[in-house]
Amino acid sequence: MRRLSGRCTSHLKALLGLTGLALGGAPALAAACTVTPGPGGDVLIRAVVLTADRAITPGEVLVDGEGMIACVGATCSAGAPDATRIDCPDAILSPGFVNPHEHLAFGNIPPVPDEGIRYTHRHDWRKGLNGYAPAETFAPATDPDLIAWMELRHLLAGETAIIGGDMAPGLARNLDHFAGLEGLETPRATYSVFPLDDAAGIERTRDCDYGPLAATAEQVAGLHVFVVHLAEGVSEAARNEYRCTTDPDYDATPLATGGGVAQDILHENVTVLHGVGLDKAMLADLARRHVALVWSPRSNLALYGRTLDIVEAQRLGMPIALGTDWLFTGSMTLVREADCARRYSESIGHPLDGRTLWTMMTAAGARAARMSGLIGTIAPGAAADLILVDEPDAGGDPYLAAATARPAQLRLIMRGGHVLSGDAGLVAALKVPGCESVDMAGRSKWLCLATAGAKGYTALKARADAAGLWPAFFADAPPVEPVCRTARTTKPDGRPLPLSNDESRDRTE
Fold first, then answer.
1. Contact of 405 with 389, CB cutoff 8 Å
2. Which residues, in sequence order, are CB contacts of 485 under 8 Å at separation 6+?
3. Are the C-beta atoms of residues 262 and 243 closer than 8 Å to each other?
């Protein structure tokens, strides 16, 4: 089983300050939560424990001194007599969320009110093709402090791992950077925005004459996981991207400048982002190839008026994770994306239950990064990336409660045993050093970022405020969010966009 690297050994003792705590004394916290210090480096958490199979009510999770989960069950006490105990039997313990699709550097651009324009392909709004005016008229952030602030938004919403192009040290795990793995002994993900080398705005419908540096079958076969944007649009040009990445016979005539031929690259080590234009036959082929999907419904619906055929993808049993895409047309956190996914699925008569949403945010996200069993789960041998959630009003469904929890309802956020944030009383009882007090929707939190190698909250907030960035959290939904409904509205000249292929399935206007 893969573990955290040696540089994290015994970090629980150092970060939680447990070596100097005496036995006895259980300081009472809100919501009947107590901490009983112990002299060892292990931590035992008692709560409603969410596993893939069931919710253990209550259950126990033992985190060892290397930041790994050593035991999960109704009781783990016998194997940890010297552990510090965190006893919150009415709270919910979930794996931290895994977000396999975000563009962190573009978190500097907030969404704008919807004007009803829907595009046919991503190059329409990127480059102003097909009669559209370009919408991407801004540049990504390059200041590391601003990128850290934007990553902090995700962390404070419970996302302990992310694939986002850029990274900030010490916050969430950045699964597409070796330095961002934060001690995980696993290859990184390879994240590709333009696997066909079409960034200049190249659209094709009958051949594969994209750029000369399109990914080849040989290159992709040597990667741990290739996470790629594909078929982002509703046009034939979007579907052509699928043909050029699955069928070598589709175009075997190379360009004089290089490239230009179809490749067979979509296999088990590939995760497809978006896939809006994929029809049922294409999805069935990808299912046979064991390709994973990442679904970003809010951004898809805001840009194209439709999204991945989630009904068919689920019927095929494909692994489907949720991803936020970017702030401009997507969701500011994975929890907000889950809210969109839930409302959209209800609108098309295919409601997603709490456990399905939660799985899309945890185990499916890990599968998208090919890190199953190591993150996105509470199981022996997994990294202790954990969030402790107050029970919101979710009709008694603990999985839905975790998937919909607001930042203020996260009592504790732990990444590989590092306590990064939590209720002030809980973190104080754990004696985590170097924390800063933050008011979060009327609830006192301590953010302990510096101990994990990140800049502190106060310093990051000052930079973010000066740059006019959105806050790291809101009490509830943000003041402006892109639409989350099927809306095939208009092209720039006012004409309706045509429906195509399987698109008639999701008319919900």
1. yes
2. 301, 343, 344, 347, 508, 509
3. yes
What are the residue ranges of CATH 3.20.20.140 in the chain?
Answer: 98-373+482-506
Q: Each residue of 75-93: pLDDT tens digit?
A: 998 878 899 999 999 999 9
Q: Which two tokens stand for residue 168?
A: 């900030």
Vertex 237, ends 323 and 326: CA angle to 5°?
25
How far apart, in whole angstroms, are the C-alpha atoms of residue 323 and residue 329? 12
Q: Which class in CATH covers the domain with range 98-373+482-506?
A: alpha beta
Q: What is the distance between the alpha carbons of residues 155 and 412, in angstroms, rounded to a whole number? A: 11
DSSP state of 84: E
Contact 368, 387 (CB under 8 A): no
Identify the pLDDT of residue 10: 38
**Tokens at residue 321, please?**
């994770």
Q: What percent of the chain has pLDDT over 70?
A: 88
pLDDT tier at 491 (50, 70, 90 boundaries)?
Answer: low
The reported pLDDT for the residue numbered 327 is: 97
| CATH 2.30.40.10 boundaries in the chain | 6-93+385-447
Tell which residue, 22, 47, 43, has the closest CA to residue 32: 47
Residue 446 DSSP SS3? strand
* pLDDT digits 0-9 by tens, 265-322: 999 999 999 999 999 999 999 999 999 999 999 999 999 999 999 999 999 999 999 9
Q: What's 6-93+385-447's CATH class? A: mainly beta
Measured in degrees and rounded to the nearest 5, phi and psi for residue 85 equal -105, 130
Helix (H) or strand (E) holding 367: helix 363-368
